[in-house]
């Protein structure tokens, strides 16, 4: 579901936006006050696909909201809703990190087109975590947790586990693991994969826990899934 944050203190404009957006299949949240908008954005801007931001607001101005947001999150697109002839507002808004602006009164079709363009320009949200059952891999911090226990891995161990977790339950032949984790093809037999699978097992498994990696005889390895 695509959620739009509507920051607008004029109740008629806010309800016009909400009705129109919901008819188009968007979810909406409304903040009629700059402070409320700021706290919503500080507590979780990433859940909004786009922010529609009025500038003249009680509590805190739209410029202040935008400035605060951009210190923390540069990715969520913001479209400033501004009065017809407030050209300096526009320039200032773009300086502060707005992606676009729409002048009031605006046509709803134009607003939708601008929103779609703004959402597109930020691209799909790329997840920085892989989760399979008890395992959670943080691709940015290069750390893994099993059932909440933090486990440090070397670069190769991490790459090997990432490959297995991207293919849960699927048997990966040693040749493919070698090609993807070590980036070259072994034409001769090498036990480097087996050695690293051993390292991972020692770090990930505890006595009594279900083994994470299964050896499939003559075929390769696979990540065990529930
Ligand atoms: Ca206003």
Give the helix/strand layout.
Elements: E1 3-7, H1 11-23, E2 27-31, H2 34-44, E3 50-54, H3 62-72, E4 78-83, H4 87-95, E5 100-104, H5 108-122, E6 129-132, E7 135-138, E8 143-146, E9 149-151, H6 155-166, H7 174-181, H8 192-204, E10 213-216, E11 220-223
Parallel strand pairs: 1-2, 1-3, 3-4, 4-5
Antiparallel strand pairs: 6-7, 7-8, 8-9, 10-11
Bound molecules: calcium ion.
Calcium ion binds at residues 9-10, 54, 56-57.
Structural write-up:
With 226 residues, the protein is an alpha/beta fold. Helices cover 41% and strands 22% of the residues. The protein contains 8 helices and 11 strands. The strands form 3 sheets. The protein has a 5-stranded parallel beta sheet with strand order 2-1-3-4-5, sandwiched between helices. A 4-stranded antiparallel beta sheet has the order 6-7-8-9, with helices on one face. A two-stranded antiparallel ribbon has the order 10-11. A hairpin with a 3-residue loop joins strand 10 and strand 11. It starts with a strand and ends with a strand.
């Amino acid at each position: 579901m695509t959620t739009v944050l509507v920051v607008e203190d004029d109740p008629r404009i806010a309800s016009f936006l909400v009705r129109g957006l919901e008819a188009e299949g968007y979810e909406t949240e409304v903040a009629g006050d700059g402070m409320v908008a700021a706290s919503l954005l500080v507590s979780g801007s990433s859940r909004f696909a786009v922010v529609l931001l009025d500038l003249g607001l009680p509590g805190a101005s739209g410029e202040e909201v935008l400035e605060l947001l951009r210190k923390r999150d540069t990715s969520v697109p913001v479209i400033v809703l501004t009065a017809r002839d407030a050209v300096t507002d526009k320039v200032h808004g773009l300086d502060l990190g707005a992606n676009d602006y729409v002048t009031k009164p605006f046509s709803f079709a134009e607003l939708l087109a601008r929103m779609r363009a703004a959402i597109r320009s930020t691209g799909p949200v790329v997840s920085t975590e892989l989760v399979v059952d008890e395992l959670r891999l943080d691709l940015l911090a290069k750390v893994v947790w099993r059932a909440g226990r933090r486990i440090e891995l070397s670069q190769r161990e991490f790459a090997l586990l990432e490959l297995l977790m991207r293919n849960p339950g699927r048997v990966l032949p040693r040749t493919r693991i070698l090609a993807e984790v070590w980036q070259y093809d072994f034409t001769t037999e090498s036990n480097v994969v087996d050695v690293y699978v051993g390292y991972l097992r020692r770090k990930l498994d505890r006595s009594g826990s279900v083994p994470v990696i299964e050896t499939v005889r003559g075929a390769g390895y696979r990540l065990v899934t529930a």
